[in-house]
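CCA-adding enzyme structure dump, as promised
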Amino acid sequence: MNIEAVIERVLQSIRPTDEERAFVEALMKELRTIAEEKINELGLDVKPYFVGSLAKDTYLAGDHDVDLFLAFPLETPLEELREKGLELGEAIAEKLDSYEIAYAEHPYVRAKYRGVSVDLVPCYDVKDWRDVRTAVDRSILHTRWVNGNLKGRNDEVRLLKRFLKGINAYGSEIYVRGFSGYLAEILIIKYGSFLEVLEKADFMLRQKVIDPAGWLRREPEVAMKTVRRETKEDRPLIVIDPVDPRRNVSANLSWERYGIFYFKAHQFLENPSEEFFFGKTGTKGSYLAELRRKGTHLVTLMFPKPDLVDDILLPQLERSAKGFERALSREGFRVLSWDVGHRSGKAFVMLEVDRRERERVTIKPGPEFFTERGWDFYRKNEKVWIIGKRLYAEKRVKENIIDVILELLEKDQVALGKNVREDIKSGEILLDYVPKELEEDAYLFLSREKWNLKG
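structure tokens r here:
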């Protein structure tokens, strides 16, 4: 199938239908009416703005999350914005189906209405980058800029977003570190089309700095400060925010995720397929066969998933995996790779290790023999000898990796994420076995298919 035919087939499944558009427009109209009624009832000087992909018409079919921002005047003190913003958000949400309080830089309301997630977020009514007070304020400016510059290329954004989702490089969250939706929109506006962005994968990396709004010319001092800062941080891309010269839109983009995009863009252009947009289906394999093939071993720490959002949970699991890697290395075990995640209500840390047992004794170096510490070492150990000036002894140690891990946890000798420390300590430790719900995760991890650039 040629590239145009693939793109047309993909567009048919990701472009919202007329019925879907009518639903979204009616939903936004209802929410605006409810918001305006509650603003008037509470006597507030607040303007409701829709932001995000629905407001820009860059949303994918079936993805209808609503972001309704409640913009307060610039002179409003921050504490008052937080207090009144939460009060207003709750008042609006009372008219919806259900809601809960969520927390970012300041509290906001996350609600459900007609099967759709609705975020009600207080912010400042900013007109310019100099007005920005909180992290969310720019969203209003982002929506205006995209709507003013996209010029009918909405479907090109949809293609790029779906491609990035399909190759697992979409989302700027800390546990993904991929391309944000806003970054995808900027790249389409800058380069013109989905295919142009893919063709520029190598060029973007070499050019490094992308400045769609010309800040390096208009505000050279501020923009150059951003470029120098982000260059020092060794970012794969520096995309100066079209609405704020102080910000790199791609600051969260990792080298790994850009690398995936880089290779997959080349592969798609050479051999176009719908699979790039929707991922492989039915990836099957045996994790036990992988262990036999490689001669390695799998340690899985598993426990009930804590009530934490992924933004908090996954970085904590990653920190814990790195802690195990360091601690086991000190104990003579080599961690070849690790993976973390959650599935079916269980959180997990998987470690691929070189062996399940180690030598029963280890050689323990001691101090110089003619010191007070030397006499102490001599008295405490059974077999002691001298090499040069130093004493050495044999130390009997636990052999099995499970026993070693239990001892490390008991002695607090593993750097664990603070929010999951107690969960890990009281969880299960499995060796060369996982329950059925984790079999696919174990296979993808051990086979490296999870990260395979050629897959």
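The mean pLDDT is 93.
lmk if u need the other ones
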